[in-house]
Design brief:
CATH topology of one domain: Rossmann fold
Number of strands: 7
Radius of gyration: 24 Å
Distance between the termini: 87 Å
Bound molecules: 2-acetamido-2-deoxy-beta-D-glucopyranose
Shape: globular
CATH architecture of one domain: 3-Layer(aba) Sandwich
Helix content: 40-55%
Length: 468
């Protein structure tokens, strides 16, 4: 009798130990993956000489989604909106959509009918440290209706830089456009050809940041984990085996809308064919931020890559060799962002009703209001879940959202934190090479260190961006 009990207990103990070990190994390998994946885009960026936009997107968003920079306070959702005149967010957005479609004349009649199902294709165009992960996540949170992809062009860029280390920007932009078009159409085949190692029978374990997409981690897309010691968690919500892209495509088709976030599209112009494809109803949201703040933020986040800037800031009293390659790169970034924004704001026929410019600073200060405007613009209902998610991931409290007290001052402090981390000389350099871009977006110049550090001087103009 005793023996039987003892054996039973030993069996249970052994089972428990095995299970524990399994999960420890999984966790460890998970950590390793987290460490490894983010490195690659940075390394790659080192080589992309001819591509001026700084490419690091180290994917630092943790599963608990802390968005420290967007940790500002929301303003009342019923605030007067400043953008598109389609303020009253939420589900009442269809008016703006239909207006935009019909107003674009005969050329877009085809689009209107093709999009009769109301299927929207949203491209979030950003550069790093502009809050694009936050906005992407906001759309991802529409889970039930949204198929969201986080930076699929990562694979394309990596593949294109593999041979030479240098990317041919115009050739790359065609690949980007074609891959995006196919992904919007729920077709993964072209992306597959860029995934390394190549998927076997349309199954891959290597899709960049798969776990960032709720749709790719749903039960139906989650193939069972093969019993293997080093099998790792590939999703936050459940343990999934390698991704079967056939299932991913089916999941995409089953969702009502598609959103793709990218920091790799340099020129809006190159995406024009997406707006002319009768199968698509494409909307672009361009996210921008004060380039001085971006530099300050990148110097912290990607410190090894920005060592040159840090050295300039620390020695020589911040003297910067203005002819340096790094400075030229910054200037190139700023000019490209400006060119795209000017194009979007000038409202050419092909972009009419399809372009929205959003400043990071406005999202940080008024997350709820800005989210409502973005959803209104896209014509996608702003769900209670997404509202709830904003409440949980910004410092907005229910009281603040209901406008009990003004939070403006607090929030601008949050948004302008960078002013105390960037040496004045560096801020000056940014102003010098990014001046026109800053003016376009309403970022004020400082002409002395005192002003930079003076909290009562706002460096942000209240600005409406109306597409003409
Ligand atoms: C609009 O364009 C289509 C073909 O693209 C043409 O058949 C139709 O007649 C045009 N309608 C008007 C009002 O011009
Ligand atoms: C980039 O690619 C295009 C098309 O493949 C080619 O015509 C062009 O010469 C290339 N540019 C460079 C600098 O290699
Ligand atoms: C991927 O999913 C499809 C659709 O369910 C299935 O037919 C196919 O066999 C799967 N591929 C593999 C390698 O399991
Ligand atoms: C990624 O960036 C974050 C800051 O956003 C930083 O804290 C983190 O160390 C970076 N991770 C890697 C692997 O470089
Ligand atoms: C900032 O907000 C906090 C609560 O979020 C509040 O306690 C504090 O008084 C505010 N500070 C200012 C300067 O408004
Ligand atoms: C900060 O700016 C305000 C408003 O321009 C000015 O009145 C104040 O004297 C400045 N403070 C310092 C320390 O320069």
């Amino acid at each position: 009798m005793r023996n039987k009990y003892a054996i039973l207990i030993i069996c249970i103990v052994v089972l428990v130990i095995i299970e524990k070990e399994n999960s420890i190994i999984s966790r460890v390998s998970d950590k390793l993956t987290l460490r490894q994946t983010p490195q690659t885009p940075q390394t790659m960026a080192e080589f992309t000489v001819s591509a001026p936009i700084v490419l690091e997107d180290n994917g630092s968003v943790s599963p608990t989604l802390p968005y420290p920079d967007i940790a500002a306070v929301a303003s009342p959702p019923d605030d007067r909106g400043v953008l598109m005149n389609t303020t009253q967010g939420g589900g009442t957005s269809s008016t703006s959509t239909s207006t935009s479609t019909t107003s674009s004349g005969n050329g877009t009649v085809g689009v209107a009918t093709a999009a009769a199902g109301g299927r929207k294709h949203i491209l979030l165009v950003a550069s790093t440290r502009t809050g694009s992960s936050f906005v992407g996540e906001l759309f991802n949170q529409q889970g039930a209706t949204m198929f969201y992809l986080f930076e699929p062009l990562w694979h394309v860029e990596r593949q294109l830089t593999l041979d030479t280390g240098v990317i041919n920007a115009s050739a790359a932009s065609w690949s980007y456009r074609d891959v995006l078009r196919q992904l919007f159409l729920c077709d993964f085949r072209m992306l597959e050809s860029f995934i390394n190692p190549p998927p076997l029978e349309h199954v891959t374990a290597a899709l960049f940041r798969r776990e960032s997409s709720m749709a790719l981690c749903e039960e139906e897309v989650c193939s069972p984990v093969v019993k293997e010691v080093f099998e790792r968690y590939r999703c936050r919500t459940r343990r999934c085996g390698p991704l079967n892209l056939t299932l991913a495509a089916a999941a995409c088709r089953a969702k009502q809308h598609v959103t793709i976030k990218t920091v790799r599209v340099r020129q809006l112009e190159t995406m024009r064919p997406l707006t002319e494809d009768p199968r698509l109803d494409t909307r672009f949201i361009q996210l921008v931020r004060d380039p001085r703040a971006i530099l300050a933020s990148r110097m912290v986040a990607f410190s090894s890559k920005y060592q040159t800037w840090k050295t300039w800031g620390e020695v020589n009293g911040g003297e910067v060799p203005i002819e340096d390659e790094e400075v030229k790169k910054l200037q190139g970034n700023c000019n490209q962002i400006k060119t795209s924004a000017e194009l979007g704001l000038s409202g050419p026929e092909w972009l009419r009703g399809r372009y929205m410019l959003v400043r990071y600073e406005d999202i940080a200060r008024y997350p709820m209001q800005k989210a409502a405007q973005m959803f209104a613009f896209t014509g996608i209902p702003f769900t209670p879940q997404a509202r709830e998610w904003i409440l949980q991931n910004t410092h907005a409290t229910a009281e603040e959202v209901h406008g009990v007290y003004s939070t403006q001052k607090n929030s601008s402090e949050q948004v302008e934190k960078w002013r105390f981390s960037i040496p004045f000389k560096l801020a000056q350099v940014v102003q010098q090479v990014c001046g026109p871009t800053m003016q376009l977006f309403g970022y004020k110049f400082v002409n002395s260190e005192q002003t930079l550090l003076n909290k009562s001087v706002s460096l942000l103009e209240e600005r409406e961006f109306n597409v003409s």
